[in-house]
Known about the structure:
By secondary structure, the protein is mainly α.
Amino acid sequence: SLWYNKSVILVEERNKKVENDKAWETCILRKILIIVMTYIFAVLYLTIADTTNPYFGAVVPCVGFYLSTQSLKLVKKIWLKRR
């Protein structure tokens, strides 16, 4: 029936969107862009705050972000097993 076909198409479109969103969330390009943007904003902030060596200091939040993306995979895996 027409209603059934339309429902199937809507579900398939939703599934494709969910798959694309998940692919974006896990892609390396997204992580690199976040790290680069974090570094730029941290350098700007540390320069305005007149700290010593803002270029080195800006590495800290970038490394923190990267490590959190790596460790959260392990936490998620453990959480899913216990759920």
